[in-house]
Write a structure and sequence with these properties.
With 891 residues, the protein is α/β, with parallel strands linked by helices. It contains 31 helices and twelve strands.
């Protein structure tokens, strides 16, 4: 197996890299698409455009209109007039791949042709839904696209449509006849008449069958339209490449390369890929089309997909250049300065996740494009999946060292030593890439989740184990199935449950107008013991988890009406077989995670209270709650000297003299285990309740009672199991993503933080609180039985660069595997360097564009982990930077 590739970008790629960095350091606000750049799908009345069954266009289904909008978007992207601003139709000198991403990100939003009607937008406002509501928590498996080509998918759709059309016509006739019979009877007999009831029942059955078949027809038609749009996009780029080639003398290298690019674009993605270059161009076109159509989709296990093509490739250096060009495509929307972000704010009320506004930390998500590559790990049969392409991709990512795409390496106890060493060397060189996933934990977690509500028989067990073995992660870090699952999640801040337990169901964040505080949960008594405190914490946590799980089911009951995804559904397992979009339950597997944040803060607060209130009895619980409510007396001149002294004493004891999460402390680790156990119990109970209300078909004698409960929760329709045949697998996990600053805003003071300050990032120690080093963190993780948590448990660590070597990183990785850590990100840096950048960024905020770019340019390649992705340190919000300054620790 060849594992050594060039360790630097070639001059060709370096030139393209420099162009990207220069653009990213300056004002990119003019590069965004604007509404007038594409035709409005709803208002377009082109008399030459005819769509069978749909006239006017407003009356066709949402999924068909979305497919038309995808085509309009891709047309706009190859319009040379638009491209003078957007650069989406450009072919850069020396580029080895065609196609360019339009501007957009999780933090800045997306631009897309409108396809919803005024009535749909008005109705969707109550559930915070519009066309921008798509979110990228899925992944593509490109194996089928490369093997069969996109034309095969179109042909499959044509075949399905040809089969459905006569069936629908016949059903229309039967429905019309049933309606006539009913109308005749209705005018002659009373409602109670049996004949009339039977006629109405027959009519409703005919209506239901007809609607079902029409929905299938519209799905296949939308898939066909959207796939055809991608083929047309590729053909237009072929023309652009030929046009540019004509500018060079015959036989020159530039002309030869451009004509080859045109040839490839005329072949893929329509036809199967045969060479590595064709495979990469096929993926590139489709990936760009997905992101352009607001499907911020991850890239999946590319080493498994691409290795057969790499093995046939004789020019590995050229292949590396091609892949590095692809990395540049993925990172093309990069912003490296904060001076122009307000002008690029395209987030509206519905660019969100969930049924209520999801207030994201936009600045932290400016360079979050929700695209990851996953390499290594195990194959579906359980054998090691490491191959030459694993090392190839790692080297390309290392060479270019941009924040996007992210890369995760799956590792396990039988991973090649060479792979672990390569990961360590890449981390040492890039300072932040790759991140790692431990198969020893994540495979059992996913297998257990997939077996929910399944028959425990060998055939099912084998299938679910193969799915679990083949897992990957989405655009952030949540574990999903490789092109075979639809995933959504909801988040909780655990400190809210602790505050509620301390304060009889109310927040401890001070608000004099609300007396005890905002009432967020049902009242519980004042705890008399630590056992009481833990019991009430679980009661409040159960309340919040119930709300979260029910919101996950509600999420699935709305999305198909606003944000279907025919292009992605074309390759999501189950959708084509069922004739249903992913938003209509088309995927074979539906995973929904409940992600708990602030566990480290919960542990630190509970450990301090146990020690100082219930064991040492130095303070009363009332005094502690007062100190928390008063923010430990910080910046409060209205308190008496005695109160200030008391609150300061509590703060010192809580901050510096108490057990801490992730420090290999016996007491803190025991409390962590208790919290994880209670959360797991809560999720299991809530999952059972949610499935009973929203998914499972109830026995006839319980139907009315459960339907009334469902209505009480705000939904009046049939359960998901009946409407979409969904069997939801509810999973649990721990993390914050980039939201640890945002989530802290609602929380009162706790150990090592003041009111409204950030909570701990993901499942990581509060910065600056550990004394046992990284090995202490890993030793703590070994006690928590993380293999229960299929929604993921990610720990972020930051190593002090002066004391870190590749050998030390290798040692950490092996310990992480052996001691059953689940997921880990590693940054290598120093507080001094982060402080230096922090000051430079603050200075640049008061400079004009050119001077700011010059000031920040030396730091453009310093990236860090933020939640679940890499981001340039210079683009972080200042409070995120302050959090990072505290992070580096000794081994």
């Amino acid at each position: 197996m060849k594992t050594e590739f060039a360790h630097e970008m070639s001059p060709r790629v370096k030139k393209l890299y420099d162009q990207l960095i220069n653009r990213a350091l300056n004002d990119r606000s003019e590069e965004w698409f604007t509404p007038e750049m594409f035709q409005n799908v709803i208002e377009d009345k082109d008399p030459n455009e005819r769509f069978p069954l749909w006239d006017p266009i407003e009356k066709c289904s949402v999924i068909v209109r979305r497919a038309l909008a995808i085509n309009r978007m891709l047309i706009a992207m190859t319009d040379e007039q638009n491209s003078r601003k957007t650069h989406t139709a450009e072919i850069a000198d020396g580029d080895l791949l065609l196609g360019n991403m339009p501007m957009g990100s999780n933090g800045l939003g997306k631009m897309f042709p409108r396809f919803l009607t005024e009535d749909e937008l008005r109705a969707g406002s109550i559930t915070n839904r519009n066309a921008a509501s798509l979110f990228g928590h899925n992944t593509m498996n490109y194996e089928e696209l490369l093997r069969d080509g996109l034309q095969a998918k179109i042909n499959d759709c044509i075949k399905k449509l040809d089969q459905l059309a006569p069936t629908i016509n016949k059903m229309k006739e039967e429905e019309a006849e049933a309606r006539k019979v009913y109308e005749d009877i209705k005018n002659k007999v009373p409602k109670e008449n049996t004949e009339r009831k039977n006629a109405l029942r027959t009519l409703r059955e005919k209506d239901t069958e007809l609607i079902s078949q029409k929905r299938k027809f519209d799905f296949y038609w939308a898939v066909k339209l959207s796939c055809k749009a991608v083929l047309d996009y590729a053909q237009r780029f072929a023309v652009l490449a030929e046009k540019k080639a004509a500018q060079y003398p015959d036989g020159t290298k530039e002309q030869t390369e451009l004509l080859e690019l045109a040839r490839i674009a005329r072949k893929v993605p329509a036809q199967p890929a045969e060479t590595f270059h064709e495979a990469m161009q096929s993926i590139c076109f489709f990936h760009i089309a997905l992101h352009a159509s607001m499907n911020f989709i991850s890239l999946g296990r590319l080493d498994q997909v691409l290795n057969p093509y790499l093995q046939k490739e004789t020019d590995k250096e050229k292949a590396l250049e091609i892949f590095e060009c692809f990395i540049l495509k993925c990172a093309a929307r990069l912003n490296l300065t904060s001076n122009f972000l307000i002008k690029q704010d395209h987030v509206d009320y519905a660019t969100v996740l969930g049924t209520h506004p999801y207030y994201i930390d936009q600045k932290a998500g400016v360079n979050n494009f929700l695209q990851n590559i996953i390499v290594g790990g195990k194959k579906a049969d359980g054998s090691d999946a490491t191959n030459e392409c694993t090392y190839f991709i790692l080297q390309a990512i290392e060479n270019v060292n941009l924040p996007a795409p992210g890369i995760y390496v799956r590792i396990h106890k039988n991973s090649p030593k060479e792979l672990i060493n390569k990961i360590a060397r890449s981390l040492f060189r890039t300072r932040n890439n790759p991140s790692v996933l431990n198969d020893e934990v994540m495979i059992p977690a996913l297998y257990h989740a997939l077996m929910q509500d399944e028959k425990n028989v060998p055939e099912v067990q084998k299938n679910m184990m193969e799915l679990a073995n083949d897992y990957c992660v989405d655009g952030c870090w949540e574990p999903i199935l490789n092109g075979k699952s639809d995933w959504t999640f909801t988040m909780l801040v655990g400190l809210q449950a602790v505050e509620s337990a301390l304060n009889q169901g109310a927040s401890l964040k001070k608000d004099e107008a609300l007396f005890r505080g905002a009432k967020v949960s049902p009242t519980t008594p004042v705890p008399k013991s630590f056992d009481d405190l833990m019991k009430y914490t679980e009661q409040h946590l159960q309340f919040f988890v119930d709300q979260a799980v029910m919101s996950l089911f509600m999420y699935y009951m709305i999305d198909e009406n606003a944000a279907p995804s025919p292009l992605f559904s074309a390759y999501l397992e189950g959708c084509m077989e069922k004739g249903a979009d992913k938003a209509s339950g088309g995927a074979n597997h539906n995973l929904a995670g409940v992600v708990l944040g602030a566990v480290p803060d919960m542990v630190n607060e509970l450990a301090a209270i146990q020690l100082w209130v219930f064991e040492k009895k130095k303070y009363s619980l009332e005094q502690v709650c007062e100190a928390i409510r008063e923010n430990f007396g910080v910046d409060n001149n209205n308190l008496s000297p005695e109160k200030l002294e008391l609150y300061k004493s509590i703060q010192v004891d809580f901050d510096t003299n108490s057990p801490k999460f992730g420090d290999n402390d016996v007491d803190a680790d025991r409390i962590t285990c208790d919290i994880l156990d209670m959360f797991y119990r809560c999720v299991e109970k809530s999952a059972s309740f949610g499935k009973k209300l929203f998914q499972d078909e109830a026995p006839e004698r319980e139907w009315r009672r459960i339907a009334s409960l469902r209505a009480l929760a705000g939904y009046y329709g049939l359960p998901l199991g009946m409407t979409f045949n969904i069997k939801m697998k509810i999973t649990a996990g721990f993390g914050t993503f980039e939201q640890y600053n945002w989530q802290g805003r609602s929380a009162a003071a706790s150990p090592n933080r003041l009111t409204g300050m950030p909570i701990a990032p993901n499942f990581s120690p509060v910065p600056g609180t550990t004394h046992a080093g990284i090995m202490g963190v890993i030793n703590s993780l070994s006690k928590f039985r993380l293999e229960r948590f299929a929604a993921g448990t990610i720990t972020d660590i930051c190593l002090e660069e002066d004391n870190t070597t590749p050998e030390i990183i290798s040692e950490i990785l092996w310990d992480f595997i052996r001691k059953y850590g689940a997921m880990m990100t590693i940054a290598v840096g120093s507080s001094e360097k982060y402080k230096e950048i922090y000051e430079a960024v603050k200075e640049s905020m008061n400079m004009d564009g050119a001077k700011a770019a010059q000031k920040l340019a030396p730091y453009a390649n310093i990236n860090v982990r933020i939640g679940g992705w890499q981001t340039p340190f210079i683009t972080l919000p200042l409070d995120h930077m302050e959090n990072y300054i505290k992070r580096p620790v000794e081994k």
